[in-house]
Task: inverse folding
């Protein structure tokens, strides 16, 4: 069975480099183009269920996939983006200027430091586990799951059992990552990371500097 792990389409805050977290930011015009291109890409990957974060940017993306397949999106609160507390709405540069010591400590030791008013690593890992157990218990065929950059990095690390660098996997807006699940062994294997071929066929290719150029695991997943 295959799990198609999908990040929502682009938003204005993605372009501006502002941390979104739990803020309910909708897709922008480019993000809606990406969602339509994503739906075409997923037409080659028929699924039996579509799960989504209830946040509007993820739900808009999930509906674009589900509607042509005559499926109803099932909302899972556990797939919401990580809560970044008072850092939400700000850029990394701004946070470094005003709360740099805490930010650096969080980047170095996320298990021991959380954003002010935000989630701890233990809370994130717990809800990723709950999301997977819910989905796994209902799998009847290939499924699509739409969520957010940081949550997906943690979710994939959970599925892949901490394989090297799995927590640092960064997926682009409206990209498709394929994971194969073997139910008898209850193990998962990464098949393809960050497929964007469907975006490159038309006008939905990434436009923002953040999406055109990845800089590694440092600060990009949650933008």
Result:
């Amino acid at each position: 069975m295959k799990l198609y792990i999908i990040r929502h389409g682009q938003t204005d805050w993605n372009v501006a480099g502002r941390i979104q977290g739990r803020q309910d930011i909708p897709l922008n015009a480019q993000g809606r183009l990406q969602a339509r291109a994503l739906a075409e890409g997923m037409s080659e990957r028929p699924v039996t269920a579509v799960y989504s974060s209830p946040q509007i940017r993820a739900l808009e993306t999930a509906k674009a996939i589900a509607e042509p397949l005559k499926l109803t999106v099932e909302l899972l609160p556990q797939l919401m983006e990580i809560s970044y507390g008072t850092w939400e709405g700000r850029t990394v540069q701004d946070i470094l200027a005003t709360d740099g010591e805490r930010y650096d400590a969080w980047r170095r030791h996320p298990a021991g430091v959380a954003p002010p008013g935000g989630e701890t690593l233990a809370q994130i890992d717990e809800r990723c586990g709950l999301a997977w157990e819910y989905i796994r218990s209902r799998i009847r065929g290939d499924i699509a799951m739409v969520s957010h950059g940081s949550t997906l990095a943690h979710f994939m690390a959970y599925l892949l059992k901490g394989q090297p660098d799995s927590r640092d996997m960064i997926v682009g807006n409206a990209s498709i990552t394929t994971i194969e699940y073997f139910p008898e062994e209850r193990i998962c294997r990464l098949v393809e990371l960050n497929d964007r071929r469907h975006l490159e066929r038309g006008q939905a290719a990434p436009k923002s500097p953040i999406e055109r150029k990845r800089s590694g695991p440092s600060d990009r997943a949650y933008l």
About this structure: Residues 2-212 form a domain with the Rossmann fold fold (CATH 3.40.50.1240). The first strand starts at residue 2 and ends at 7. The two ends are 30 Å apart (CA to CA).
